[in-house]
Amino acid sequence: MEERQVKINGLHSKEDVDKVEQALKDVWGVRRTEVSLERQEAKFSYNENSASYEDFVQALKENGYTVSEYH
To answer: Which ranges carry the HMA domain (predicted)?
Structure first.
């Protein structure tokens, strides 16, 4: 199980949070998601045998968001 915490650029509303959560959940292998409008970040865990970090970055880009990696 891999865990990531990333800064999401472009979060301005609850609708953005919902959109980001759905984009993350749509990636095969995701286990848990948590998106914070206040902190402008997302935390998610996933099965690294089913998905890669780049899959999540791409899903967010396709929905109009940019990502800065924390760790």
So the answer is: 2-68
Give the separation between CA 22 and CA 47, rounded to whole angstroms. Answer: 17
Question: Do the beta carbons of residue 41 and residue 6 sit within 8 Å?
Answer: yes
Specify the pLDDT at position 27: 97
CB 15 within 8 A of CB 64: no
6-46 per-position pLDDT tens digit? 999 999 999 999 999 999 999 999 999 999 999 999 999 99
The structure's pTM equals 0.90
In terms of phi and psi (left: phi > 0; alpha: psi -120 to 50; beta: otherwise), the region of 69 is beta
Domains of the chain and any CATH numbers: 2-69 (3.30.70.100)
